[in-house]
């Protein structure tokens, strides 16, 4: 078997300066918020206690990087929870506003989305307190600032006990910068947890990261617009051909007022995360088994041909707009009917009063189910962490029944624990999110990190796809040129 870990251990750390993925889906309120500037230096060593095990007699304080979706502030978790509760009760922007009664939680019952981070961290605190572990959080931002800080932290060997991130995390694992999960923990995860939560962080049979509530893509549609086109709004398209036919009918019915839509394909991480599943489904992808670019495969050529057909069913320039926000705004404003996006599209549509349909992404002819993680905040323990055993206890708490039941009760994302997501009760209460859970199983991948000049390689591919979509040029020739350029960058 090809040893990717051995290869990546010899590569420069600069490769970790990879894509800065947007997990927001063009407006996801639970995405990580921007934090400190990239120029600030890490301070993990100042807050981490001397090396100790998670079950030792002495108290252990671990340092954990903030994830915006569950963040309650910066500092000691014990102190932050009280402050978070006060701020939620005073926050008049919450709709509906958080009340004292919202802090009385009954597992299995719906919760106010505003109090989700509070309950999440309260459960973490209580579970770790029983093991004499306390948590101190730091905020290193998100996206490119976070990647730069983590890269600097690895170089300086000054890194928190738990780091978090999206597209950069598989690259860190491949470079040998992360501690593999203990064998018993990895075995438990493989047996009880959906692959989307850990499979993208697996290298040579070892797991290096975990996401408690990852997203994958599904197909959504506006039932009102679909119905206006004379289509059955409750029927999901079963194939790419049927999807394209439906989209074309909506565009015709819209007469310039609304369009069929499809998928965002901008030359950035937001685009790669959305149309990436189509490449995977059609037996293509971004890289080969050795981690080298595989941009010009015959399968990818056919997928880009499909993307070109979809482009004709959007307002000019929208599908490949370098800024992803306008694309998702068009769906929110009911100007486009179909969209491929993460699970938050369901709750956002409901909040906007859009009657929507949701289904797995249809398959191409000869294709097979596959997906790309999106909005997946992977937590990992660095090799240079000072309190590794205690840090792994934190990650164990993330897939505990208590945390996974909490995630299930929000109805915004699906739990990754099989016993909870596959229960009859969950399927009955959250049929849309159960569909999402099903999509988290099977061939689920993360975006690859290339061995050097990662951002340049991605830019080469993204611009080539945009050119192929927007012009009538030979798609095979355009992708061949992109492949040759990528290979020259990597020499």
Automatic annotation (TrEMBL):
Short name of one Pfam family: SBP_bac_1
Signal peptide annotation: 1-21
UniProt entry keywords in alphabetical sequence: Signal
Domain of life: Bacteria
Gene3D superfamilies: Periplasmic binding protein-like II
Stretches the record annotates as Disordered: 22-56
Protein name: Extracellular solute-binding protein
């Amino acid at each position: 078997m090809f040893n990717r870990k051995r290869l990546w251990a010899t590569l420069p750390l600069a490769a970790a300066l990879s894509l800065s993925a947007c997990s927001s889906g063009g407006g996801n309120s639970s995405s990580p918020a921007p934090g400190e500037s990239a120029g600030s230096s890490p301070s993990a060593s100042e807050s981490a206690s001397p090396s100790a095990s998670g079950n030792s007699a002495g108290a252990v304080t671990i340092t954990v990087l903030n994830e915006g979706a569950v963040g309650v502030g910066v500092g000691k978790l014990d102190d932050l929870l009280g402050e978070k509760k006060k701020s939620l009760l005073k926050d008049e922007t919450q709709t509906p506003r958080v009340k004292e009664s919202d802090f009385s939680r009954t597992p299995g019952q719906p919760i106010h989305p505003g109090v989700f981070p509070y309950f999440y961290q309260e459960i973490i605190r209580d579970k770790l307190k029983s093991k004499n572990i306390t948590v101190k959080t730091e905020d290193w931002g998100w996206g490119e600032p976070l990647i730069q800080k983590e890269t600097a932290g690895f170089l300086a060997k000054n890194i928190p006990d738990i780091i978090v991130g999206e597209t950069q995390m598989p690259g860190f694992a491949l470079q040998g910068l992360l501690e593999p999960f203990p064998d018993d923990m990895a075995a438990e995860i493989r047996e009880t947890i959906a692959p989307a939560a850990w499979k993208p962080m697996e290298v040579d049979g070892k797991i290096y990261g975990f996401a408690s509530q990852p997203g994958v893509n599904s197909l959504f549609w506006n039932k009102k617009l679909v119905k206006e086109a004379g289509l059955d709004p409750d029927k999901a398209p079963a194939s790419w051909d049927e999807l394209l036919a439906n989209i074309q009918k909506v565009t015709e019915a819209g007469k310039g007022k609304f369009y069929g839509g499809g998928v965002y394909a901008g030359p950035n991480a937001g685009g790669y995360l959305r149309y990436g599943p189509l490449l995977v489904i059609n037996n293509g992808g971004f890289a080969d088994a050795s981690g080298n670019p595989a941009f010009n495969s015959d399968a990818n050529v056919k997928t880009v041909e499909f993307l070109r057909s979809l482009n004709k069913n959007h307002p000019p320039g929208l599908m490949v707009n370098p800024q992803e926000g306008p694309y998702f705004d068009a769906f929110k404003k009911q100007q486009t009917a179909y969209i491929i996006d993460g699970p938050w599209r369901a709750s956002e549509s409901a909040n906007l009063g859009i009657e929507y349909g949701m289904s797995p992404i249809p398959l191409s002819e000869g294709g097979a189910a596959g997906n790309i993680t999106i909005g997946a905040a992977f937590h990992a323990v660095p090799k240079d962490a000072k309190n590794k055993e205690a840090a792994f206890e934190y990650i164990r708490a993330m897939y505990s029944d208590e945390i996974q039941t909490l995630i299930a009760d929000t109805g915004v994302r699906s739990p990754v624990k099989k016993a909870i997501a596959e229960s009859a009760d969950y399927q009955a209460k959250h049929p849309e999110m159960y569909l999402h859970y099903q999509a988290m199983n099977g061939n689920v991948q993360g975006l690859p990190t290339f061995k050097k000049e990662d951002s340049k390689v991605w830019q080469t591919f993204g611009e080539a796809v945009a050119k192929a979509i927007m012009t009538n040029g030979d798609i095979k020739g355009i992708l061949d040129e992109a492949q040759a350029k990528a290979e020259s960058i990597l020499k």
